[in-house]
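Much of what follows relies on a compact textual record of a protein's fold. Think of the row as the fold of the chain written in a discrete alphabet. An example makes this concrete, so a full record is given next.


***
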Amino acid sequence: MRFTKMHGLGNDYIYVNCFKEYIENPPKVARFVSDRHFGVGSDGLIMINPSKCADFEMEMYNADGSRSEMCGNGIRCVAKYVYDYGLTDKTSISVETLGGIKYLELTVKDGKTELVRVNMGKPELSPKLIPVVSGSPEDEAVIDAPILVGGREYRMTSVSMGNPHTVVYVDDVDGLDIEEIGPKFENHERFPNRVNTEFVKVLDRHTAQMRVWERGSGETLACGTGACAVAVSCILNGLTEDKVTVKLLGGDLEIEWDREADVVYMTGPATVVFDGEINI
């Protein structure tokens, strides 16, 4: 199987051009290639497929083989792949995901994609659609709501950006024992489909720092949908303006929530690490 390893701010995946390759058992292959000792090493597997309703389809699996709806860093890499490897010559493309069709704008220099701006769509706040157990009789948005995890009460804001997120504000992002607390949020009974958890400290009205525990992958260096969820949460809680620089372990993403159109835009880089071939 031919593949390309790519990353968005250190959030790395194995990309396979399924116009040319066929993967019989994607969950098994995802677990194999993601292993950082016995495989290639990645946060998961992303298959680039033909689509009947968009320019391309992104079929994504986490490192544990579970299916994932969407990945903001992953979709930027899909955009770079299809342009840089000659699958399209368009700089405006659409990509089908389980989280809906996403629209992307590519900034190209010397024939290579430098930046990708993604229309991430509408942030979903309905608890039933995230999903999250709201704890209220009505389907009210979960904003600054209490949750008891590991014997301690936290305040969370829950958002779906095509996949489920909950945002938790902490005083010390760097010193957080994320390996301890991350799995407890991920598998908490209030999240029927598990959840991606962002631990956040707001630095000023335009900047937030985050670490993320991704469902099925653990801590990663960056999470694009998570950065979008963080920006939406910060804005809903009155902590930042509508344009936010989100600082992740792997670098920065620029997030803008157009409140009038109710659309979130994410801008960031995508990088090719290497091309390879592996027996599966």
